[in-house]
Amino acid sequence: MTVFESFILSIFDVLGFIIISLGLLREENQYKIFKKSLIYIFLYSLIMSVIEIIIPIEYIPILVLIFLYIVIYLTYRKGLVFTFKIWFLSTVLILTIQYISLIILNIIIGNIEYKFFYGLISQIIFIFIVIFTFYKIKIHVLLTYINQQKKIAIILLANIFMILIIILMYWRLDIDNLLNNFLDLSILSLSIIFIYFIVIKNGIRNEYEARELEMYKRNLPIIDNLISEVRRKQHEFDNHIQAINSIIYSNSNNNEVVESLKQYTSEIENINDLGNLIKLKDKILAGFLFSKQKESEKNNIQFNIVIENPMIDTKLKSYELIQVLGNLIDNAFETEVEDNVVVVKFLRKYGNDIIEVSNKHPKVEKEKIEKFFEKEFSTKKKKGRGYGLYNVKKRLNKYNIRILVENEYRNEYTSNFIKFRIMF
């Protein structure tokens, strides 16, 4: 294979590696990172095309992995340990996809040979699978799982890694024998890898289910309190109906009846303050907002909940939605503003379900707003802050959900509000 042919095939390798790593990280500015990586893609491909001619073939796989680690580090600048995690997972996924692309090529063409033509077709199939994986498969959960130091996942992924590295070494050292036994080796190795991935997938699913169960246990007492409060309000409502009936039937003067009713109803106008909450489809969310309402009363914060769309539909799981809203509401409660007002709205606009969390706040400059979601950035004076909004953004990025921040002057309060709008 010529230097030029090797250069072309190497471009596919590192391009797929960068795309998969972007899928693992789910960074907000993916396009910017990808443009930055183009120079590294070019340099890597150029270096590898030359190395494959002057270095013994048995050392090539090791050099490939070392250079790919360097590319990942230069692209993201995330630190050596975190870079290793990204490199490790990207290598597992890339080698698996490359192996699958070879199997697909073998099925389509038949007996494949170690030639540029077959390599190019295989790499084209490889890139299509990589792009599909990036857009359609939530591979970022693997990185989350590794970051949580789940031993079973790490062990299984390490086993997959070793199987793929052995195949890669076999490919480099004895290509003819590998191609002759390609079908048998493919069935054996892919079966093992498939089983491992199924175990990891089930482990991740069980983790999510455990989190949801924990969230339900934590919020059930709150929901019980909400139900008790609704029953108490219903009892009060029945008493008020009786009182209104008494006013009507005990007085024959219509003018006096009207005045008495006006006075009485003005005193009980807040009787239905739970009416909005019980409209929500997600009762866990209703219970959570009820607890926040009680918290606001203790802290003398005006907390208004407006529900125009009770059927909010979101990709977020219940515990994730509560984590996001909890961070936003806590952030709004803790603002250092006198006579604070916090408003949560559930809306349907522009074809999207929307949740807005806003609070009374002096106008914030655009440059400062752009830093809101940066790690450790905070407008508050206390130390150890700056993680709430960062975690919100990280959680929403996981599902490609947009969050917008803007100033909004509200005449009814004669004050500026800072508004967070989540669009599902």
UniProtKB/TrEMBL annotation:
<feature type="transmembrane region" description="Helical">
    <location>
        <begin position="88"/>
        <end position="110"/>
    </location>
</feature>
<dbReference type="InterPro" id="IPR036890">
    <property type="entry name" value="HATPase_C_sf"/>
</dbReference>
<feature type="transmembrane region" description="Helical">
    <location>
        <begin position="37"/>
        <end position="54"/>
    </location>
</feature>
<protein>
    <submittedName>
        <fullName>GHKL domain-containing protein</fullName>
    </submittedName>
</protein>
<feature type="transmembrane region" description="Helical">
    <location>
        <begin position="155"/>
        <end position="173"/>
    </location>
</feature>
<keyword id="KW-0472">Membrane</keyword>
<feature type="transmembrane region" description="Helical">
    <location>
        <begin position="116"/>
        <end position="135"/>
    </location>
</feature>
<dbReference type="GO" id="GO:0042802">
    <property type="term" value="F:identical protein binding"/>
</dbReference>
<feature type="transmembrane region" description="Helical">
    <location>
        <begin position="185"/>
        <end position="204"/>
    </location>
</feature>
<keyword id="KW-0812">Transmembrane</keyword>
<keyword id="KW-1133">Transmembrane helix</keyword>
<dbReference type="Pfam" id="PF02518">
    <property type="entry name" value="HATPase_c"/>
</dbReference>
<dbReference type="InterPro" id="IPR003594">
    <property type="entry name" value="HATPase_dom"/>
</dbReference>
<feature type="transmembrane region" description="Helical">
    <location>
        <begin position="6"/>
        <end position="25"/>
    </location>
</feature>
<feature type="domain" description="Histidine kinase/HSP90-like ATPase">
    <location>
        <begin position="316"/>
        <end position="424"/>
    </location>
</feature>
